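Sample A.
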Amino acid sequence: MIDLHYWTTTNGHKVTMFLEEAGIEYRIVPVNISTGAQFRPEFLAISPNNRIPAIVDHAPAGGGAPVSVFESGAILLYLAEKTERFIPADLRGRVEVLQWLFWQMSGLGPMAGQNHHFVQYAPERIDYAMTRYINETNRLYGVLDRRLADRPFVAGGEYTIADMACYPWIVPHERQKQDLATFPNLKRWFETVRERPGTVRAYAVAKTINTQSTVTEASRGVLFGQTASNRPAG
């Protein structure tokens, strides 16, 4: 059994996509980040960066005490290695997956995340910031579109954790001010992943956990007002 400490965000969806694809038994522990639940001591014990998702694997390979993992990319890699699924066993195939997983973690996610913040949530309109992150998101979409020109999935011929990492960040493409019609290879891949039964189930699970916007006037301070010395009590 795996406990998934989760909220309905782009990074949270990555992990439910894997668990549903792999058919792993799991239990969701909701962490409502809009109310400060991510600062509770019991959550910080497994996710010291106070970010979801995080997992606790009660049956790790080799037995022994439960293993906790935070950071969505690390979780995907942990689960892929545990199950020996969605990551190739050969060196070259593994490298392809890992470099695109890290590309998403270091590029697509942070840049699209800043896009979301300045376009959707910033209390004042800052044209320079909006243009900067809309353009950078567009550039990254172009990288992915070119990558998918001659292969069905991000890392090659098989569906992997690289696809699971990228897909949730493309879902809000309209909010990111991107037109998928201008990226035909990306659009084809997006529609393919969207129709996978595991993806459908993962997003259906999200609707049972939260049906409202996480970002509200009341939650802005919790989500966007954190410093090292100014942290909500949770």
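Sample B, a different protein:
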Amino acid sequence: MSVVKNILMRSFGRPTGLLGRVGGIIMARMNRRIAQRVIELLDIQPSDRVLEVGFGPGVGIQLLADCVPSGSVSGIDASAEMVKQAKARNAMGVRTGRIELRQHSVEDLPYQPASFDKTLAINSLQTWPDAAAGLREIRRVMRPGGEIALGFTPHSGQVKEGLTEAIVAAGFTDARLVELDEGFCVLATTPGD
């Protein structure tokens, strides 16, 4: 791995140490607008059970918690530093049990089948060790008729080509790409009963 790529991964991909702390601060500012937009596209309802994969410093988690006063928000992130920052940013929700945050990998989610109504990931798919396995695992934990949104800013490095096909291959339907001022988003649903 090149030195530059290693620094970027330690800052933004799987943040660790001082670079991870600084990366979290930067991500909190840079990803807020796209997180807001992706949440709008998912049409989150007050009682939804929502999962965010790769929540970073927890800005999306914070926005989601405001949308689901009678629901719940869960999240996984592979970075211990991001879990720490997100728990601090969402301390009240974590204390009351409305928000659950774990350090975990997307390829083996610690949830029962059909646990979530909606799932989102912002600028994280491109850092997953096995994106196809991660998408299949997300599909497993979503209820029939649930919705997924994968949002990307221009600086994410994620290409658009092949994304809708990858989501369909993981078992989702109605996959479509939506252009945003902040980047782009891929939306899809889980097959109904």
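Observation for Sample B: The mean pLDDT is 87.
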